[in-house]
Structures are given as C-alpha cells and as structure tokens.
Design a protein that fits this description.
The protein has four helices and six strands. The protein is α+β, with helices and mostly antiparallel strands. The protein folds into two domains: 46 residues, no CATH class; 76 residues, Sporulation related repeat (Alpha-Beta Plaits, 2-Layer Sandwich).
C-alpha cells in the first residue's frame, strides 16, 4: 500500500513539474507558484529550518571499536566503500569481518540491508580511492569485491 502511495505522489509531482506554473492548495491557504518546481528543494513559501531543534551530531561511539586511535577518519556523510560479501546471516558476516580485519588496516563495516548482512571495507571520499583499494582486496581473494556507496 505504501508503494502505491509513493508512486501516486511521484506522479502528481511529475505532472506539476511538467505543467510549469502550478497552484498548490491546502485546507487553509493557497500558494501561487510562478516558476518551475524543484522537487529537491524546500516547498514554495517555506522559510524554516527543519533541523533547528536537533543537536549537532559529530560522531557515534561504537563499543569496542576505536578507529580514532588508529588514525582513521570515518566519514559522516555518504561515502564510497568496497563491498566484499553479502551474507544471509549475521554470524557469517561477523566471522568474515573479523577474518578480514586481521589482514587489513582499514575499518570493516557490516550493514544490514533487506535480508542481507553486507560486509564492507573502508570509507573513501573519492570513488577512485575505493576502486584502487578494491584491487588490494581482490588480491586477498575477494574477487567479487565492488565499489558502492555507504551511508552511516
């Protein structure tokens, strides 16, 4: 049901963008839009900051992992990483992550996405850096290693 609603909203926005000048109405007021609508910007007439009441997050401590001591900087936004496996159980992913951690110096992450536990290595700001490091992992035997993005 949610997917249908998302598709419906997307189609409405698409039609509004295609039509150019559009009127958006709510129960309480009506806003006349005279320019094309950018679906990635704030709604027309919105001037607030949706994050003004939230604290600034600099990092999240993870028990037992101290990458700062090793000199690693874990990127806070979306970044590139190298995925070496997608396991169907957390235990399998954990064993693989521990095994890989013994052979490399970069941080190893396990991300639970859908039904898979994805084992990923490193946090690279540039795709080229991740591609270069994927070759190192391939030499270690992870021939299916590939570059992807990760959002912590």
């Amino acid at each position: 049901m949610i997917r249908t609603a998302e598709v419906f909203i997307f189609l409405i926005l698409l039609i509004m963008v295609a039509c150019g000048n559009t009127t958006i109405s709510t129960d309480t007021d009506q806003v006349e839009i005279t320019e094309d609508i950018n679906p990635y910007s704030d709604p027309p007439g919105y001037t607030g900051n949706p994050f003004e009441d939230f604290p600034v997050v600099i990092g999240v401590p993870v028990p037992g992992e101290t990458y700062e001591e090793q000199g690693f900087e874990i990127l806070s936004g979306t970044h590139f990483t190298v995925q070496i496996s997608a396991a169907t159980s957390q235990e399998t992913a954990q064993r693989l992550a521990e095994s890989v951690s013994a052979d490399i110096t970069l941080p190893v992450f396990i991300d639970h996405i859908g039904v898979y536990w994805k084992v990923r290595v490193g946090a690279f700001p540039a795709r080229e850096d991740a591609v270069d490091y994927s070759r190192v992992l391939m030499d270690l035997g992870f021939t299916d290693a590939w570059v992807t993005t990760r959002e912590p």
